[in-house]
Amino acid sequence: MATVRARHRGYNIPDGDMTTFHEIEFDREGGVFLNRTRLILLVIIVFLLTAFSAFVSRYTTQLQIRQVTESGVKNAQKSFFAVEPNGYKVEFEPKLYNDDGVVVENDAIYNGRMEVIFQPKIDTAVITLHFGLLNIVGIPILKRRLSIETSTEKVLRNVFEYKLDTEVNAVNETLTVTTREILRSGHFYSLFVNFTGNISHLPENGGFFKTTFYEHYPNEQSWFVATKLAPQGARHLLPCVDGRTQEAVFEVSVVRQNGTSVIFNTKLRTTEPYNGGLLIDRFEKTGLVRPDSLGLFISNFKPQSITSKNFVELAVWTLQPMENYSLINKVLSSTLVFMETYLETKFPTNKLDIVIVPKHEIGSAESPGLIIIEDKILEKVNGMSIEQILHIVETLIEHIIRQWLMPMRVVDRSSTQEQWLFDAITNFLRIVNSDNILPSWNLEARFLLDITQPVMFYDSYANSKSLSEFGYRSDKFSYISSHKGTSILRMLNYTFTEEIFVQTLKEYIHTEIYKYNDAASFWKLLDDNVRLKSNNIPKNLDVFQIVNSWIRNKNYPLVTLEVQGDDIILKQFRFNYNKTVPTDEWIIPITLSSGSAYSMTIWMENSKEVRVPGYNLASKGSWILANKHQIGYYRVVYCDKLLERILFEIRTGNNSIDPFTIGQVVADIFEGALVGLIEFSEVFKFLTKFIEIASPYYGHWHPIFNGFKKLEMVLKNTEHYDWILVFNIPFIRNN
């Protein structure tokens, strides 16, 4: 065995003693020799490498920041910060009251104190935050923290502070703090920042806005202060890294006066006394959320608790007690129970506050655990029409469902596909939920006449846009895209079966939405499930091909049905009021059903015409329908022979064709005449016979009235207008 000799500054070290020493020397018998010179060289090399690494890290970070800031693009696409906060501890102190204890009607200010907790990705000396329409007060303080769980009090007791250089760039809305020492990756730090902000009466002027009004009692002031953060708008509320993908944990506290209520995204944890007789509400931590998802509502509103059938705490906040409390109670609690079962996913938060604001300054807004609805009729039930009740129910359900889809709301909305898919999934789930908790209302059937038909009207012109028109924005386009997208999802749901489509939704909302947050992952999941479980798709097709044919084409298809011997002939056209022409651009799953024959799906793929052999023979002269229940987003025009069979079936009173499908047939006949595929004389002959047997159903008369209004508008001052007069005069005389 090798012998070991050790010297420490010339002194012998007795056996068994322990010490620290600067030089250890093993004899050559041990196989290792490290003398003083080599040790010094090694220390110098390590020091130089460390210094060089720190220099490169700092230079790289500064270069990245310079590339963005010098470009003049404050909302740059790239995430360029070496420091992305893990968490924020924020304290807001709004100055709302004057000396008389009344909320000021003019703009107010608020003070903010914040601790930003972060762990650098790389060694760096630069910390950058966005600060927007705020004022930074004093010099920030930077301290080291042992871990992310270290208390703020313990961090502040540490007397050591980093030397800082601070730069505020109002043009690029950035606060840049440069340290004179390197911040090591993997270590935790706290940056303390004080700031002030404005509470304006205009939502677009900052993070907070305020409104005061005398809505119910002339001498009693009502007011609220709320956030309504635009994408990347959290920088106007508090200094933060306000990018598209940055998420962090927020711990929020708000100073308030007695009699004032504060609502946040999470539950209230404690209320404690504060300076000058004030109170401070401290809320539970959020999960990982984007800064622009934060929601605060400060007011003198009063809460009403709602009975919940699950673990979610529900409350509705209003100025005065609601008259339609029972309706809202039923809708909210039933929706939560049904959706959790349907999606097999718990509600994202453990509480939900719904604020009903009877004022136009805010409109509707939503963030995790907090929904703000601007709607007077939610407070008053007297004189409410059925249409208004439907609006209440659908509004509430839609906002609740959006809570499950909150991670899907891409911050910048730069991708049109993600935007319409988000809205389409919301509408689809709203329809499913409504039909289950209120089955007698027939909300899905009403959707086909009240929503789908008007959307198809707007989508029928040459200047219409496809769903993939990136960057295109207008109110009309938003209206068309969300409901057209809903119709596409309904078509896929019925084509591939509800079991497969719902399974895809479950997987997407439960897992994929948090990982990828894009439309492509949804279509990939659907394609995988269809391949695994369904025979309803040709082997040469995939879901991407089918969907692309619908989102990349503007307008929509019209399909004609003709009888040719024993067969049925399907032809595809592009429906367009300017020019309707044959096309093969859509991949359409055509659903055929009959009074006597089997139901089947025919795929129109890369063809303008498809023959269905023997289907007319199999129908045995009974009615044949395509696109029953408006399963697909297309119109259908029937030949005279098939229209006669449909009329005959309606006369029998067997109710084998439901009123809403009949309404769809009537609406499509009107549209077929407007684009020249049917003669107006044939349309009015059909209507004359149909009106004689029509029942007092919404599905029968709604499309008739709408059709004549449209014909009146379109055919006025044309040669075809005579047909309306020829039809209307005898009809009026006979009725």
UniProtKB/TrEMBL annotation:
Supply the source organism's classification: Eukaryota, Metazoa, Ecdysozoa, Arthropoda, Hexapoda
Single GO cellular component term: extracellular space
Q: Which is one GO molecular function term here?
A: peptide binding
A GO BP entry is: peptide catabolic process
Q: Which UniProt keywords apply?
A: Membrane, Transmembrane, Transmembrane helix
What region holds the Aminopeptidase N-like N-terminal domain? 85-286
**Protein's UniProt name:** Uncharacterized protein
Transmembrane stretches in the record are 39-59
Where in the numbering of this chain does the Peptidase M1 membrane alanine aminopeptidase domain appear? 333-550
